[in-house]
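User: Predict the complex with threonylcarbamoyladenylate.
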Amino acid sequence: MAQVVPAKECIDKAVELIKAGELVVFPTETVYGLGANAFDASAVAKIFEAKGRPQDNPLIVHIADLSQARDVAREIPSTFYALAERFMPGPLTVILFKSDKIPSIVTAGGDTVGIRMPDNIYAREVIAGSFPLAAPSANKSKHISPTLAEHVREDLGDSVRLIMDDGPCRVGIESTVLDLTTDMPTILRPGAVTANMLAEVLGEVSEQGKIIRVAKSPGMKYAHYCPNAETVTAQSIDSAVRAYDEAASAGRRPVIVARDIYRDKIGDRDQISLGITADDYARRIYAALHTAEKSFDYIIVEELAGADIASSVMNRVFKAAGGKRV
Ligand code: TXA
Ligand code: MG
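Assistant: Here is the predicted structure with threonylcarbamoyladenylate placed in the model:
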């Protein structure tokens, strides 16, 4: 029989269970979730068993911070980070192409994966202490979604060990599901993050066959922060080095703008330092771009993962690069 424990008192226990390949029910701002280590196929199989869920229905992967997105998804577009800055943590799930680390049971065999950062500190502490969590709503398949720990105990009490209780869910209906893998961003399930809110960031979004267009906020509509030289962002230091070498052998003058931790990998290629921390990166980025545009014709900028200042500075850098990535 499940133990129902106040969420803040059972973080360690929850982390332990997840690491052991077990299920944990955790609170979110939308509805309670039934979570398992998203990288562990046999742990995830227990979710389908407990819920009686058909295997062809994919699960959402819950992350604690943006740096985990790269473990879950690949080819992440800059629009994802723009959405994250505004709506994460929050009731929005974004569909992206899946990474190799995500087993196919999570995605029902598909090549895409839903990612969401729940707006509940206890849920994020468990994820940060263990793994991203694959989780559906914590109800028996087809039954009503749970917005109280008590609902979960009645429905799944026999098949889970721990229910983290954080009282009633603030939003009360499931997250908005937005597919970013299609040409036109498409809402697959409406929720508290509405089509209009999404269109303010994306410009346009499709919902139930209708296209919603909104003039982007001035910061989005016009090009901003653009150096007078072609600029791209690099998804990894290896791709930065590759792009550099290709440009150099084509007779161009490339430069890599990156933090010192990559000095060895960059070797004797031209580089401009962004220091060490995310704060250093933010403090130095504009000066680095000013310097770069004066002496070089191809600027390759390291992409920074993470939340807070890292995601804010990436908002500017993606614009500087006009969304071009290598
Ligand atoms: O608010 C929520 O999203 C809650 C909490 C626990 O985070 N979770 C939730 O999960 O509602 P679930 O499994 O009950 O609903 C997930 C929905 C399903 O309709 C599923 O088909 C869709 O998201 N979905 C998940 N991954 C998908 C993918 N790769 N492509 C398309 N749809 C996907
Ligand atoms: Mg559900």
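The chain has a mean pLDDT of 94.
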